[in-house]
Design goal:
By secondary structure, the chain is of the alpha+beta class. Helices cover about 35% and strands about 10% of the residues. It has 10 helices and 7 strands. It has a 3-stranded antiparallel β-sheet. A hairpin with a 2-residue loop joins strand 4 and strand 5. It is found in: Nucleus. It comes from Urochloa decumbens. Keywords: DNA-directed RNA polymerase, Nucleus, Transcription. Belongs to the eukaryotic RPC34/RPC39 RNA polymerase subunit family.
Length: about 260
């Protein structure tokens, strides 16, 4: 006789805590939070605005953090200066628009939706405060950059940036800001941009990489101070050749005179 099968055990009911409530709705998929960094125009606000104010507000809102010059508003909507000024001022009064200063064009009236903050392109970024250059902050970081170059002899922007953060982790300068400062120091002839040879003072910088050193530094003798000292084609250079001192733009720049 075959063995008898055991009856299946009774199904266990889920504990009360796991039972859905009688009127519970099915769970909805989780929605990601809207991007708070990208403001969207309010349909409610638009509905309350007269036609011309709605057009101007929409146009300026779409310009985002760059804002819009009042003259451009007039041209795009083909309206007179008086109407444009009146409409924009009304929107400013209602706190929908604001006037911002553009460090590049002091005389221009730039307007922006109050939902946005001006871009660095308009404010000047870290080195500007209330539309004015923060000369103290610029001088401080220039001193830090110069100190790193003096310490290293020759350094790339990345090396300068790393050195500043190593000395002061709370400095908070981005590499782009350091690059901007270094460029101004080159224009002011405090630093000079040179190509590394990978030797001597450039030992820490890969050969062929553009880097910076103190301007006018006579390290390594006179020949290293002029472009010829680091030129990879100096052996091909001759007075009557295709490559010659009379046609070398770097040599002319170093002499600061024309042949």
């Amino acid at each position: 006789m075959p063995p008898r099968k055991r009856p299946a055990p009774p199904l266990e009911e889920p504990p009360p805590s796991s039972k859905p409530a009688p009127d519970a709705k099915p769970s909805e998929p989780t929605k990601s939070a809207p991007d708070s960094e990208t403001p969207t125009i309010s349909a409610t606000v638009l509905a309350k605005l007269p036609n011309m104010e709605r057009q101007v507000y929409t146009l300026i809102f779409e310009a985002g953090s760059k804002g819009m010059w009042l003259l451009d508003v007039r041209k795009k909507l083909n309206i007179s200066p008086n109407i444009a000024t009146k409409v924009v001022r009304t929107l400013v009064t209602h706190h929908l628009l604001k006037e911002v200063s553009d460090v590049r064009h002091r005389s221009r009236k730039i307007f922006m939706a109050t939902d946005f903050q001006p871009s660095d392109e308009i404010t000047g970024g870290t080195w500007y405060h209330d539309g004015k250059l923060d000369t103290d902050a610029v001088s401080a970081v220039r001193r830090r950059c110069q100190a790193q170059v003096e310490k290293l002899g020759a350094a790339t922007v990345q090396m300068i940036h790393n050195g500043i953060l190593r000395d002061d982790p709370k400095a908070g300068y981005t590499i782009d800001k350091i690059r901007d400062i270094v460029r101004t120091m080159v224009l002011d002839k405090v630093l000079e941009e040179v190509k590394s040879t990978g030797e001597g003072e450039f030992a820490a910088v890969r050969s062929g990489t553009m880097c910076y050193r103190l301007a006018g530094a006579a390290q390594g003798g006179m020949m290293e101070g002029i472009p010829c000292g680091v030129c990879p084609r100096i052996d091909e250079c001759s007075p009557d050749g295709v490559i010659s001192p009379s046609t070398c733009v770097y040599y002319k720049k170093w002499l600061q005179m024309d042949f």
